[in-house]
């Protein structure tokens, strides 16, 4: 395996790409995030927070992202991408700290979603700017695959470590451990070159122009479906698995680690294939299988056993393929002139859909019992949203 052509290509891409330091930075931050973020909604649930409150948490994160995104464009213009990425770290620490004290006062719940919103907005918006500016259109699938692989390698052990800390030690010790690696993760970024973007003025009222724009309707549909998928897979489904695994953090972490190992081997083989074949065809197949994956999850969660682990492994793998292919198409549809507008459109539609979807679910849950069976039925929405991921068109004009 170590001397296979696919592995040699991965090593070459990692060592010789001009995004090498960015790869390492993102991988380390993914590891730090995997220690806590996978368990965030589950941890809140274990502390007694209702599903509606957890959905309110998700809604608040996305609303924060939409509100501050124009300010991030201004910050990047002023201090560059590298320092904007570094600016995200204090907000990650604040969210960790607020989790520690969240049961002592309601204010910490609001600090949590607000700091989480600031963190993901500063980090992901700026990181995508970096990838679009420094990446290669011809080898986009290979680059994103490499990024996904090294991130997955480092995050493979993250859920297990986080689960063990939460199950057998204390959150306070996990906080110390995570803070140390948060500091370490910023070192590769400090060694990288800084990049600034052409000065762009964008105000909140300009969101209306993005809504009225008719040139990228298919992409907007895909982004709204992404928002629904994220809500289901990040905020609801982990709770369902946690309940199924008898409220055990360590078992949940071990399960996610096992899924990550399977993903690594397949992505190594697949990342170059995506560049040599139609990304749209790959996405079409992956989105349909992903849709069936949600249906299979619902069926096997009631049965349990080894079949659930098999279905979960396949679903997680296909979800990664869909994300990698979809992201590759999205990046290739942008250029140096329109990428900020494209990213802001994505923020508006993906996170706007999350806000609306979470609000609808909160209303529904106010009329029905928050039981295991009802939660499982809500996840069936993923069957439709997964198919919608295939709406995006290659070379669609922004």
Briefly summarize what is shown.
The chain is mainly α and 398 residues long. It has one domain: MFS general substrate transporter like domains (Growth Hormone, Chain: A, Up-down Bundle). It has helices at 5-16, 20-46, 51-79, 81-100, 107-134, 140-155, 158-168, 171-185, 187-190, 207-212, 217-244, 249-276, 279-301, 306-332, 339-365, 372-378, 382-388.
Query: What's the total helix number?
Result: 17
What characteristic shape results from the CA principal axes?
globular
Mean pLDDT value: 76
The named CATH superfamily = MFS general substrate transporter like domains
SSE order, as H and E?
A: HHHHHHHHHHHHHHHHH
The count of domains is 1
* Biggest beta sheet attributes: none
CATH topology, by name, is: Growth Hormone, Chain: A
As a percent range, the share of helical residues equals over 70%
CATH class value: Mainly Alpha
Alpha-carbon distance between the two ends: 42 Å
Radius of gyration from CA coordinates: 20 Å
| CATH architectural group | Up-down Bundle
Number of strands: 0
Low-confidence stretches: 6-16
